[in-house]
Design a protein that fits this description.
mainly alpha, 2 helices, rod-shaped
Length: 181
């Protein structure tokens, strides 16, 4: 009876472990999805902030260009030729380079964040799949244990019966000396 009980308990234990493995797999996948979503949301927010900063730089560029034009216009020379034009051009180039650098930096950061989010999703799916493989293996062990338990009981019964027979066999043996008169 002890082996039957052990096998039944093992089957219940494997079933519980399989359920826990499935639950852990789902949690791991959900956590990875949540982390990936957060990364993408943060990247999107950073992109919006970078866009606002670039618009501010454009406004500052326009203000600086107007200030350069006013300064040059006050000198009495034509603002559309010569060194005055090169001063205006150099101010514009400084801002354009800064804006382009910020745009490139933001694009790289966004691309990196999205790649990292994809890696998190793949990792979550891998953890989920591994958890499901583990759960399926435990379910198979539970099934094997529960199917084997009745046979173990039968085997124990046969063993007990055989032991009883061996114990009491001499009492019923035909080799007893009986004399008939």
């Amino acid at each position: 009876m002890g082996t039957f009980a052990n096998m039944s308990a093992a089957a219940a234990n494997y079933t519980t472990q399989a359920a826990a493995a499935r639950a852990n797999a789902r949690v791991a996948r959900a956590q990875a999805q949540a982390n990936a979503y957060k990364l993408e949301a943060d990247a999107s927010a950073q992109g919006a902030i970078a866009g606002d900063n670039m618009m501010t730089m454009r406004r500052n560029q326009a203000l600086q260009m107007a200030a350069v034009r006013n300064q040059q216009g006050g000198s009495g020379f034509a603002a559309s030729s010569g060194s005055k034009l090169s001063v205006e051009s150099s101010v514009a180039e400084v801002f354009e380079k800064a804006i382009a650098d910020q745009m490139r930096s933001n694009a790289i950061a966004d691309q990196n964040a999205r790649a990292q989010a994809n890696a998190l999703r793949r990792s979550g799916e891998t953890q989920f799949n591994l958890g499901m493989v583990q759960a399926n293996a435990l379910s198979s062990l539970a099934s094997a244990s529960s199917q084997a338990a009745p046979w173990m009981l039968l085997g124990e019964g046969l063993t007990w019966g055989g032991n009883q027979l061996m114990t009491y066999a001499p009492l019923f043996s035909s080799n007893q000396n009986t004399t008939r008169k």
